[in-house]
Each structure stands twice: as C-alpha cells, then as structure tokens.
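Cross-posting from the chemistry board since nobody answered there.

I work mostly on the small-molecule side, so proteins are not my area. We synthesized zinc ion and want a rough idea of how it might sit in this target. Sequence and SMILES are below. Is it possible to get a predicted 3D structure of the two together?
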Amino acid sequence: MSFIKDIINFILPPRCYMCEKVLDEDKGICDECISKIEFLNKAVCYKCGAPLFEQESNENKKILCGNCLRHKNKIIFRMIRSAFLYDEFSKKLILDFKFYDKTDLAPFLAKMLYVAGKDVFAEGIDIIIPVPLHYTRLLKRRYNQSSLLAKELGNITNIEVDYKNLIKRKKTKAQVECNVNERLINLKDAFSLKYPEKLKGKKVLLIDDVLTTGSTLNECAKAIKSAKPKSIYSLTLSRSIS
Ligand SMILES: [Zn+2]
Ligand SMILES: [Zn+2]
C-alpha cells in the first residue's frame, strides 16, 4: 500500500488546501496557513465558549461571560465550544468544505473539533448528533458537512453517532438571507426527533460547522430537550463574533 501511496504522492503531491503549496505529508493545511487561523483556545466563557477579552488569564478558572451570567437559567446548552474564529481567512476553509466537495478535509477538521472540545468530552458524552439538512437540500448538495464531522469525531472518540434521530422537517430559507427576527421565525419548529426515547437521560453533543447567532443550534436543542436528555452540548468548527 505504501508503495502505491508513494507513487501517487510523487505524481500528485499533497497540497495545502489554503495556499496550494506542496506538503511533505498529507496534513491538509501548511503550517503557515494554520498560523493564520484564529483558534479559540485562549480564554473563553466556560458555558457558551464565547471569547473573553478582558479578564485575567487563569485558564483553570471557570469564568462565565456577561450574557451567560445574566441568562444562566435560560441557556439550553450546558456547554458550547468552537475551534476557530469565522473570519475572512477561515471562511474559505468552511465554504470549500460545505459547498465545494472538499470532503477529504473532514478528518483534519474533526481533529480541530476534538481538541477544541476537551472540556465537552471530559463531561462524558453518550451520543453525537449532527445538525441535519432538509432532505431536499441534502439531495442537492449530496452530503451534510456536519454529518461528516460527526462521523470523524465518532471514530476518534468511539462515541456513538446518531444520524437518523434529529431531522429537519421544514425547508427553510438560508439563514444568511434572514435578519435576526426572521431567523427565529424561519426556524421555528423546523427540527424534530424520530426516536426521542433514545436520548432520555443521555448527554447529547450537537455538531455544526458555524455558529453565527446560535439560532439553528438553539432550535435543534429545543427538539432534543423534549426527549428529556441529561444535558446538551455543542461543538462547532467556527464561530462568528459580531
Ligand atoms: Zn498553506
Ligand atoms: Zn457565555
């Protein structure tokens, strides 16, 4: 096998996804491009994972952001983490992965998720669930980027991935085309569970590619909450900060 791989690498050497520089080993992205990604690995809110800007850098402290302190009981998630900031640089990575068939990025991106999710996995997750697409969109796009990430995470962690339970039953407008209020109306009752009994008493982890306003994740979490899980978590690849 390695002989064949050597030949393939000789003819078609692996290249960096971002800058297309030839790589010595197929690791997805070159070191220089990796250094341009704004990883959210510094001080983040212990609950929602939002970056904290003005605080002492004691990483052992479980500090909450202002929003989580104010609305502690209203927040449906026990914990949310994201791997990196959604900015002009990382946008290309996300869009290529999501829309342009760069599905072989999945193992590489899932490793980033796994590292970012250290606190989440320490809680003992029982089930991983990807944010679903409506079936008509899945037919058009042929794959669900969140399912690919969930599958790879399942391989890394040996945690069960449940692809069939949470479904998107309502076809909605793309969230980017809506303002904040429209987003909420657009997504209302868009998700439901097929086998709620499976999630009862479980620690459920939702996977998505981008966290923008959080309304998609929230609507998924509402559907999951109806099954009375023990707690709900989320991991997203990137996160935009307004
Ligand atoms: Zn590069
Ligand atoms: Zn917070």
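Reply from a structural biologist on the board:
Welcome over. Reading the output above for you: The chain has two domains: 1-27, 77-239. The pocket of zinc ion (ligand 2) is lined by residues 45, 47-48, 50, 64-65, 67-68 (CB under 6 Å). Happy to explain the token format if needed.
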